[in-house]
Amino acid sequence: MTRQQQVLSMPHLLGIEGMTRDDAVLILDTARSFVEVNSRQLKKVPALRGRLVALLFFENSTRTRLSFELAAKRLSADTLNFSASGSSVQKGETLSDTARNIEAMGPDLVVVRHEASGAPWHLSRVMSGAIANAGDGQHEHPTQALLDAFTLLSRWKRTAAEGLEGKTVCIVGDISRSRVARSNMLLLKLLGARVRVAGPATMLPAALADVYGVDVFDDVDDALFSGNGIDAVMMLRIQKERAARAVMGSDDDYALGYGLHRERFERLLGRHDDIVVMHPGPINRGVEIDAAVADSSSSVILEQTENGVAVRMAVLYLLAVGQARADVGSAE
Amino acid sequence: MSQPDPVAFVDLTVSLRLHGAPDDETVAGLARAAAVGGVGVAVVGVEGSALVDGPTVSAAVGALRAARALGVHLIPALTPVRGPGALADLRAAERAWREADAGDGGHGGHGGDVTMVWRLTEPTDDALLLRRIGDLARARGALVVLPSVDRSLSLGAVAVEGPVATRLGLSAMPEAAEAIGIARIVEVARLTGARFLVSGVFTAAGAALIADNAHLGVHGVVQAAHVLLDETALLKMPYDTRVLQTPPLPTAASREALLAAVKRGDLMLSSGHRHVPKRERDLEMNRASPGGTSLASSRRLLGAVLSPAELTLAASTGPAALLRCAPVLTATSAASMATVDDDLSILVSSLVPELPA
Hints:
heterodimer, A: alpha/beta, Rossmann fold, 2 domains, five-stranded parallel beta sheet, four-stranded parallel beta sheet, 12 helices, 9 strands, 14% strand, globular, B: alpha/beta, TIM Barrel, eight-stranded parallel beta sheet, two-stranded parallel sheet, 16 helices
């Protein structure tokens, strides 16, 4: 680890795949400093003054969009908001044409969420600004994984450099359709954690263990309680909007079979009284997680949201720094 | 001693385009591309108003006849609307084309012996409809061309289930989608005695089913791109619509099995899916149309994996026997085998280093 590194090794944040551990540590360390900024009375720094951040949300989003917007504003950047509803996209405009029109406004940084896997990669070829992936199809959601790792490190009072060695995290839910799961599997492994994933067989994509090096279970109790158990559990939202066909029974069946209901949670607490419960939101209370569990002291769900701002400030800042270095390099 | 006539390609599921005119989907454009590419016989899809509307049918028949001036025999593939109306559509189309073509021996001026081709553009999960079409096809001596996959397992898929699709987060289908689809076709062939041509075979299991059931009149064709590229192309060029294919690119193991089946003569070769216009390459993956290399653009590349005899069997004499036509270039055909699309040829070469650049 070269601790002197102050710039990301990549010009864009398209995903966790390909990210080095140095990059991850740099982002998480930088986020730590922005947590301090966010605790001040005046929660603003001039790091991106004069820079334009375009927020392109081709798919609905609440917390990620607000989090990125707040992050940009706390860095003093100007923001350009775009959402697909009511835009030319609904009139048939292609992603590339939309991008070229927004490019004409000169954004320095582009945050993009899109329903198609690979859309940020596509934009990185047609736009000159640095791209930050805010979620693409079923592929990746890197800033969610970064804020999740940041939250775990904070909870366990570890530095990013210390990583997550010795910890086991279990991800439960619709792994097949989850970009959050994909990014988390990659990042948690990168930081040294053991990762278990669990869900109904219809929600587990092929070759999961081979691709990600995770332990795969279709029985959630095996995943939570076998061996030495787990240190944290991440419940995923059941994404009814992405499931083309029924891949599960009723909500009640899912809650009973795979949800973190009170009985299962109390059994977990009996084995690990410091168990950490996570959820990327939005929550289907009573389906993947019981309301009381979501609101318990083991839950870090609101901390995840809070940390999301600092992590996204770090991502925007570091992408801008990298871009500035590249500009200087090309000018020389 | 006279030289033997040069053998021309016979393309069963053609979508040829002239270099420089990738969006020309007319019969005339296809005929010119076929002539330039050395394709002597090609099956051309006929759908919409050209199926049943009298004057339009006559115009289409005329266009097919005109292609013969270029030395290209174009065989119409009557393509009905999707769904339960397909059978009625086929009956009406067959009648309209028979009447329009009556003056020249039938089937677009190719003489009465050439097989009539009916084409279903989507797989049908309706076994009864397939049976009725099979019954009618047997009675008329028609060859039914149809895709292989079970639609309920393949809807929206752009890749095969496995590590590549999982890693890239792509919608995927299991390879079994093809085996299930072909198994249904095999049983309908057994039931009706009709001849079927499964288009776009892309799995090892599918190739095996075709080989095992050829005696029932079930045949298969594999797209040129599928014996040249496997799904790892998606990793080399992630989310690049130029490597998007329908059916999806095969696994490495299936590509080897497909190639072996072609070498044995169990599968025939075709040009593949339609060309991807440049404007569509700019789209995100879930909106772009699938495309691929054409047979003409790939012949040079195919030569690297198939011997001349294997290529002739798979792309010329085999399909000709199925269509009951002669795979011979006429004097007016230009057997230059010029590439139809250099970009795609270069793309394949770049993805498969062992192929000629």
